[in-house]
Amino acid sequence: MQITPLLELQERLKRLQAGLQAGDLDAVFIMENTDLFYFAGSMQQGFFAVPAQGEPIYLVRRNYGRAREESAWTGILPMGGFQDLPAALAAHGYKGFKRVGLEWDVLPVNIYRRLRKLFPGMEFADASILLREIRMLKSAYELDCFRRAGAFALAVNRQIPALLQSGKAELFLSAEIENLHRRGGHQGVLRMRAFNAEMFFGHVYAGENGALHTFVDSCTGGSGVTTACPQGAGWKTLAPHEPIGVDYAAICEGYIVDHTRVFSIGSLPPELQRAYAAAVEIQDEIIKKALPGASCAELYCLAVAMAAEMGLEENFMGYGREQVKFIGHGIGLEIDELPVLGQASPFTLTEGMVIALEPKFIFPGKGMVGLENAWHVTTGGPEKLSPIPDDLVVVPL
């Protein structure tokens, strides 16, 4: 089992405490799973208290033994229920906090109310943007995880053409691809931060199912097998001369490399071939300009302008009212991290960011063509973290 190194956790703590001091916060209380893993090195259920100065403390409800094994921090203590928090913090010198940050973007209202009752003299503030912006910049340790995930994505991708057969259900194809991932150590959970957002491994969709939108904030969705889970692979069977989209996420030690490729059994119609080539052209132009200091909103606008010049604007990143207003997003321990490369994005690219760029075209009744790659932003130009060839893959009939 790989443990996040103590030096890595200490560097994250240093950046967090600098942010707390700049935001006039005395401390932050971290409870959400992914934030716990990032800052505490373990996501065992508990309460990671970080003061603006000094050492953090990890109070664990369950499982304390595993938290001790998984985290490199030494300040890890067992805790009973929520009611024990004030006494536990005070016993270890954590008192006198007046203004404390919480993860308001994901914290349930009921837990917030309990904290208000437990700490009646304390003012709570939103620390979610601070936490997400710290996680937005990746370290050398994290980049190594991304590169390992990318190498595995390539290994799986090379095996997909042999799985494509006319008459095979999307669901069976997805099961075969997911089996390859699991055999390689995929964790089996794809984390998303947005409220009510969820995804399982990714999506496989053939033909017209690639044009089905759903509740997930994406230009594709797939049919799914039930209205209880209306996304992903369904019962539609693969057929010749239609796009087969494989939008999956390889993961190493929690770090996600999001990637999409299009396959077909026999050649695609010329209209779809042209749109695929347009997606590659848009990607290549955006990546040339995806340097530190570039405006995420301006990159989005450039992509939309290129699609319009090609006569494909109405099919770009969705169709009709379902078009999404972004062309990419940050990735890391969650698939929907900052920054967003979108119409209203306030972010500029910074060295150390990792983004997924996904120019795609949607044709109702025909499907999706396009691609998605993961990129590490550097001053010398983006590093491609999904080393899969960008070609449309055509399997002979």
Would you give an account of this structure?
The structure is a single chain. The chain is an alpha+beta fold and 397 residues long. The protein has two domains: 6-135, Creatinase/prolidase N-terminal domain (Creatine Amidinohydrolase, Chain A, domain 1), CATH 3.40.350; 137-395, Creatinase/methionine aminopeptidase superfamily (Creatine Amidinohydrolase). Helix content is 31%, strand content 21%. It contains ten helices and 17 strands. The chain has a six-stranded mixed β-sheet with strand order 4-3-2-1-5-6, sandwiched between helices. Strands 11-10-12-15-16 form a five-stranded antiparallel β-sheet. The chain has a four-stranded mixed β-sheet with strand order 7-8-9-17. Helix 9 packs antiparallel against helix 10. The longest helix has 20 residues, at 270-289. The two termini are 44 Å apart. The model has no long low-confidence stretch (mean pLDDT 96).
